[in-house]
Amino acid sequence: MIIAVDGYSACGKSTLAKDLAKELGIVYIDSGAMYRAITLYYLEQREKNPILTIEELPLDQIQIDFIPGHKPIILLNNKDVSDEIRQPSVSDLVSEVSAVSKIRTALVDFQRKIAEGKSIIMDGRDIGSVVFPNADVKLFITAAIDTRAKRRFLELQQRGIQQSLEQIKSNLLKRDQIDSTRSDSPLTQTADAFLIDNTLLNREQQKQVALNIIKSKTNN
Ligand code: CDP
Question: pTM of the entire structure?
Fold first, then answer.
């Protein structure tokens, strides 16, 4: 079974996907973490070479590994960068990096490969539209911008990352804008995706709404 979860920045996709993965006994894959890892690599390379453009990134020198689990781990050239990729410096640039086609092509290949032969739930922006257009269930998640900003504020605080609510909100709006308007695989709700607005739903309620949709689609 393949479940695709797409939607706006910080709308609770990964929380929902993790809860569903646990409930259904399937593997959760965070595609955004991969774009964030490449962005971190770009930032590191740009320290050494300030005129390096995103297009010039040597992709053959980047190895990304994703280890699924209760707390998934993302490795960049064998180093655990699971926390570092949540830093504001990465969030600030990740949408520009994700708009580059050769980066998308490489990651989409990788995402399909790690899903091969498994039952998975993957979250991102183009999972239902590009990565798995034949997914068994497609969910499209949204929530009010102020709710999303507050949730991300609390999440970053728990990770020990300080950023003001205003800065977070403007980053989310900027990313939504870039992600929705880029020419390659823009964020979009496909005709066969179920929309869940979780502004007024708590974690358990959003899980139940999604489970009902999954049951109706798969007769499980
Ligand atoms: O968790 P949050 O909603 O902040 O974002 P994320 O899922 O970690 O994704 C970070 C960024 O990666 C997004 O803003 C997109 O620019 C990009 N992304 C993408 O282009 N395609 C995906 N399948 C997943 C993420």
Answer: 0.97
